[in-house]
Amino acid sequence: MPPLAAFISFRFSPTDGVSAVTRTWITAFESLGFETLTVSGETGSDVVVPGLGLVTTSRDISEIASDLSSAIEGADLIIAENLLTIPMNLDASAAALRVLRGRRTLVHHHDPPWHRERFRHITDLPVDSPGWRHVSINRVLQHELADRGIASTLIYNGFEIPDPEALNHRESVREQVRSKLSVSAEETLVVHPVRAIERKNIPEAIALCESLGATYWLTGPPEEDYADELDRLLGSARCRVIHRSASSTFNMYAAADHVTFPSTWEGFGNPPIEAALHRRSVSVGRYPVGGELRELGFIWADSSRPSQVKAMLDPANRVETNELLDHNERIARSHFSFERMTESLERLLSDAGWLP
């Protein structure tokens, strides 16, 4: 019988980056011979443990820990996705720590507390324990963890390469999606594929679209008490606004003319990599990990400089833009393929003696 790998987190949702990366890890683990199980505090996982979600409840830590222990009973390996990294719900993290201490666990770090102003004072996380291995998603975080006495393996997020056959039909998909969005063939459509929270810098994304005379397409819902501010921003925008989810990643990039990602902070930032693989130009903010990714060779527009985006979208510059898209696609395929990520995981699991 294949060994069971249990993935645990606050939640597994369709829109946030941690969940998207976890889905690729699940596929990788299954390709390496594991059965998988997801456990979280919200709907969307195989098993729901009340109190393990993003919102603190009245449940006692011991109750949460007891239910979590039952949920992962029989698991051969636990993968903690940000649950032991960011203090979104300290009771949930404390319960997980109680259950996992000394147990065979792979701790996948995305967003430590010092990366968020409101959490900088919290020192309870991250922690280490015998029997654990740690993975960081960027070199900045790897060094920061090392400074705190936690050795980690760097494994960049991996992405599926778009199917060449699907790319052959991209124009027809583009027409269908734009029709559903009531976007004409002549409109410039700029997609901002994020949840609506403050650090995603929605004002700068809107300002870019206003400058371009483009339609602004925001795909994610408001979170972290941002709904009122989002309503104000979208209501006052001097450009057409579409706030609607995408039916699929492929369809979203097929429909869009440009991708904007002006975040002020990200643990990683998937959309610029996805844009490269889907051959779309992208404008990116100056967040620290973005600088690390730029050093790999990506050529991105600055999201605060609309003139750079205008040049990319100008039909007169089609040859130069296609060369840029070729370049970014090569970089993305080289460093961020699903195969490379899986090979890195396989080496880590082999070194730990955890492979089936």
Task: Offer a concise description of the structure.
This protein has helices at 17-31, 61-71, 90-100, 139-147, 164-168, 170-180, 202-212, 227-236, 249-255, 270-277, 288-294, 306-313, 318-335, 338-352; strands spanning 4-8, 35-40, 47-48, 77-81, 105-109, 132-136, 153-154, 189-192, 215-218, 241-243, 258-261, 281-284, 301-302.
Explain what this protein looks like in three dimensions.
This protein has two domains: 171 residues, Rossmann fold; 172 residues, Rossmann fold (3-Layer(aba) Sandwich), CATH 3.40.50.2000. The model has no long low-confidence stretch (mean pLDDT 96). The chain is built from 14 helices and 13 strands. The N and C termini lie close together (10 Å). The strands form two sheets. The chain has a seven-stranded parallel sheet with strand order 3-2-1-4-5-6-7. It has a six-stranded parallel sheet with strand order 10-9-8-11-12-13, sandwiched between helices. The chain is α/β, with parallel strands linked by helices and 356 residues long. α2 crosses α3, α6 packs across α9 and α10 crosses α13.
